[in-house]
Write a structure and sequence with these properties.
Blueprint lengths: L5 E4 L11 H9 L2 E4 L2 H10 L6 E3 L5 H13 L4 E4 L11 H10 L4 E4 L4 H9 L6 E6 L4 H11 L5 E6 L4 H12 L3 E6 L7 E6 H7 L9 E5 L18 H16 L4 H12 L3 H15 L1
Parallel strand pairs: 1-4, 1-5, 2-3, 2-4, 6-7
Antiparallel strand pairs: 7-10, 8-9, 8-10
Helix pairs in contact: 3-4, 6-7, 7-8, 9-10, 9-11, 10-11
The protein binds S-adenosylmethionine.
The site of S-adenosylmethionine has 24 residues, from helix 5, strand 7 and strand 10.
Length: 290
């Protein structure tokens, strides 16, 4: 008996319209859909009126479920693998299923579509000719810093996935190890609150609130050689959150004992503002304090 096919179907990373006609057809035709997050996939399937048996395949059950799915494939059934979002096999256990299928000579067919890393890269404004995808950094501080240290000399544009509760820590580590390079923080791509934030790592440390930050993030960081194609966005100085972050930065530098002129110079550079803008903000804040 010939084996069935394992289809790797890309699904939307936010906007449900980002799905190909071919993915929809295959999802309708297969015997089984194996999904990383069955709740999320069920929503997608019901949106497109697809009624095919669904099973879970995620990082907590991939060994057992992998064997079960392989068995079905070897019996001639066809299975569509879908991840939580995007392309299965990129920073998710899809890769394990592919290894298993390849080992047993089961045909594997990619059905491409959305992917968060590439969507962030192409919109970043950083060099996209050569890049390096790193996925998630280790969650343990020492291991994360070591990984960033290994990447310090990497000349290609770097792409990372990051969880919202770890964003601030990661940005702080990047500031130490990558210094103040250009960074693009792509948040909630293709969703209602999509934000493609461009600035330097120091500005990002100041901009993203360690507690209130929510959503899904992809970070695109300049390689070790400075790209000249990238234009920094000036921050919106009338935004109270930005104003607060600038003043925090001013206070920190003042506390280090830097002269007022030097504080203004450094903060202006960090936030891509004129020295006059920073000076006016500081004077206004001091007046308001009195
Ligand atoms: N396989 C997926 C792909 O092809 O994009 C990635 C899976 S990985 C487990 C999920 C991570 O991708 C999230 O934690 C986040 O870092 C990133 N991500 C997913 N959707 C995103 C979005 N809409 N905007 C920004 N980043 C996103």
């Amino acid at each position: 008996m010939s084996a069935g096919t394992l289809y790797l179907c890309a699904t939307p990373i936010g906007n449900l319209e980002d799905i190909t006609i071919r993915v929809l057809r295959i999802l309708k035709e297969v015997d089984l859909i194996a999904a990383e997050d069955t709740r999320r996939t069920r929503k997608l399937l019901s949106h497109y009126d697809i009624h095919v048996p669904l099973t879970s395949f995620h990082r907590h059950n991939y060994r057992k479920k992998g064997a079960y799915i392989l068995n079905l494939l070897l019996k001639g059934q066809s299975v569509a693998l879908v991840s939580d979002a995007g392309l299965p096999g990129i920073a998710d256990p899809g890769e394990e299923m592919v290894l298993l299928a390849v080992a047993y000579e089961v045909p594997v067919v990619p059905v491409p579509g959305p992917n968060a890393a590439l969507a962030a890269l192409v919109a970043s404004g950083l060099p996209a000719k050569h890049f390096c995808f790193e996925g998630f950094l280790p969650s343990r501080v020492k291991a994360r810093q070591e990984k960033l240290r290994q990447l310090q000399a990497e000349r290609r544009t770097l792409i990372f996935y990051e969880a919202p509760h770890r964003l601030s820590e990661t940005l702080a580590d990047m500031l130490v190890l990558f210094k103040d390079r250009k960074i693009v923080v792509a948040r909630e791509l293709t969703k209602l609150h999509e934000e493609i934030w461009r600035g330097t790592i120091a500005q990002a440390v100041a901009y993203f609130d360690p507690i209130k930050t929510r959503g899904e993030f992809t970070l695109v960081v300049a390689g070790s050689t400075e790209p000249d194609s990238f234009v920094l966005c000036p921050v919106n100085i009338s935004d109270p959150a930005v104003e607060k972050n600038i003043l925090v930065q001013v206070k920190q530098l003042e506390n280090k004992g830097l002269a007022k002129k030097e504080v203004v110079r450094q903060v202006a550079r960090q936030f891509n503002l004129s020295r006059r803008e920073v000076y006016t903000l500081v004077v206004q804040a001091k007046k308001a304090e009195r």
